[in-house]
Amino acid sequence: MMRLTFGTLHIKENPCASLSSITVALCLLTLILMALRNRKSHHQHHHQQNSHLDHTKYPPPPGPTPWPLVGNLLQMGDQIHLSLTRLRLRYGDVFKMHLGSLTVVVLSGYTTIRQALVRQGEAFAGRPDLFTFSAVANGTSMTFSEKYGPAWMLHKKLCKNALRSFSQAEPRGSGATCLLEEHVCAEAAEMVEVIQEQAAAKGDMTGVDPVTPLVTSVANVVCALCFGKRYDYNDKEFLTIVHINNEVLRIFAAGNLADFFPVFRYFPSPSLRKMVQHIHRMNRFMERSIEEHINTFDKARGTCDLF
Questions:
Q1: ∠ at Cα 15 (13, 19), nearest 5°?
Q2: CA 297, CA 290: separation in Å to the nearest integer?
Q3: For residue 102, what are the β-bridge partners?
Q4: CB 293 within 8 A of CB 301
Q5: Which of 21, 26, 257, 265 lies at a C-alpha separation of 20 to 30 Å from 133?
Q6: Distance (Å, rounded) from C-alpha 192 to C-alpha 214?
Q7: With contact defined as beta carbons under 8 Å apart, do 229 and 223 qualify?
Q8: Three-class SS of 160-189
């Protein structure tokens, strides 16, 4: 602890407080630099747009006025769907928002969404270039890759053909119309039985949480399609993978500041690090399953063998 003397006034300086002040000052300086950079890129982007578009013929969509630095993030709230619904009532089915450094256009209504995703599907087929997405499979994931092109279209075609084979394949022994329906019906019956067993174990006075059986049932259908096998509801490895998947979805839903403010990409992110660890564990599980299918090839077993 240092002691500073100014005339007759004695002031004690706290090193922690000084460090906190420096940290706050650095954060403010970083935010100011970000604002200047975003403003410059924003003007450059608009200049490029102005050189190609006639704003009298193609006016930009309306939208709420953005705040400095954060844009419209503070207007989203905890229930994003309700916030977007309120904004739709004010600005219409097509409006613009600023989420940090990102500019997004929100589409609402059946007619508008059909026009974009069906009639102009190729123009809207890409994904946003988010920092979090790049952490999934090192940016090579078909689902989260922003690159739309021949390779993406080929993978999509292969997946569609593989899934179509299950929707057209004959069932193996039930009254279902196809193999896919057989898997779904069998898993639904198993789920109902598990819920009934849980209800009987707890008694009539307590309820049963159906979330875990539902998620496990859906995961088993996916595993049956991909790997040609289902897992027991008490299988520890399978339950671990289901839990990891839920955690990854939870982290995705919580959002990541690095997606909206690029400067945060250089700061440690415990949630992002945890998500990457979860994804690596899921990848190891799938790699073992793929290796098993390579060693015991059976083209009628599942999507993995078809690939």
A1: 125
A2: 10
A3: 99
A4: yes
A5: 26
A6: 9
A7: yes
A8: HHHHHHHHHCCCCCCCCCCHHHHHHHHHHH
**216/212 Cα distance (integer angstroms):** 6
CA dihedral 34, 146, 64, 115 (to 10 degrees): 160
| pLDDT tens for each residue of 44-86 | 555 555 445 555 677 889 999 998 888 898 888 888 889 999 9
pTM higher than the cut 0.90: no
Could you give the CA distance from residue 105 to residue 194 in angstroms, rounded to a whole number? 44
- Sort strands 102-107 and 2-6 into parallel, antiparallel or unpaired: unpaired
Alpha-carbon gap, residue 282 to 278, rounded angstroms: 6
C-beta neighbour count of 38 within 10 angstroms? 19
- Burial of 23 per CB tally in 10 Å (0-12, 13-18, 19+): exposed
Q: What is the pLDDT of residues 216-263, one digit of tens each?
A: 899 888 888 888 788 888 888 888 888 988 888 888 877 788 888 888
Which amino acid is located at 125 in the chain? A
Distance CA 230, CA 217 (A): 9
Largest CA-CA distance found in the chain, in angstroms, rounded: 96
What is the token pair recorded at 78? Answer: 């905890």
Rounded distance between C-alpha atoms, residue 181 and residue 166, angstroms: 9
CB 37 within 8 A of CB 270: no
Handedness of CA 285, 290, 291, 297 (dihedral sign): positive
How far is the C-alpha of 67 from the C-alpha of 88, rounded, in Å? 19
Q: Helical H runs in 171-269?
A: 179-202, 211-227, 236-254, 257-260
Q: Write the single-letter amino acid at 71.
A: G
Alpha-carbon distance of 175 to 31, in angstroms, equals 63
Residue 98: strand, helix, or coil: strand
According to DSSP, residue 246 is labeled: H
**Which residue type sits at 292?**
E
**Cα end-to-end span (Å), the chain:** 68
